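Z., the sequence and structure:
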Amino acid sequence: MDRAQKEQLVDELGQVFESSGVVVVSRYEGMTVAEMQDLRGQMSEVGGSVRVAKNKLAKIALEGKPCASIAEFLDGMTVLAYSEDPVAAAKVVEAYSKKNDKLVILGGAMGDIALDVAGVKAVAAMPSREELIASIVGCIGAPASNIAGAIGAPASNIAGILSSIEEKAAA
């Protein structure tokens, strides 16, 4: 890799570190290519990415960035998982590390907030953006369905009473 390619990689990584909602650093020693492809596939499904980069270049790209605290985790065979959604990458890495013990979470960053292993797991336990939107829509829609049920209830009660009177009259 020549100097121009290294500079381009540092620029790309710098953009990743600035624009990502969360960056998770993990050790991937012993993972096969197929396992790494599986992780990449799962990450792309949620709008995230997985990147293996030279630690030295990643540390250079981190200089002056909000998530510069993750530089301490960049030692050995590390992989960066990131997404714009502040929860997606952490969820995927946490779930994948549970089923594949070769992927070990080291830490991460959420903006300028440094995350240790417990922090990454706590972020992974949070609801995703889509889950939050669904729950808000459910809360907004619930009163309307309750009103519709309340309006429809008297009519059904009257119909039930009338059918009871009709049955008594017929008997």
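The two ends are 95 Å apart (CA to CA). Residues 84 and 101 are 26 Å apart (CA to CA).

Let me know what you think.
H.
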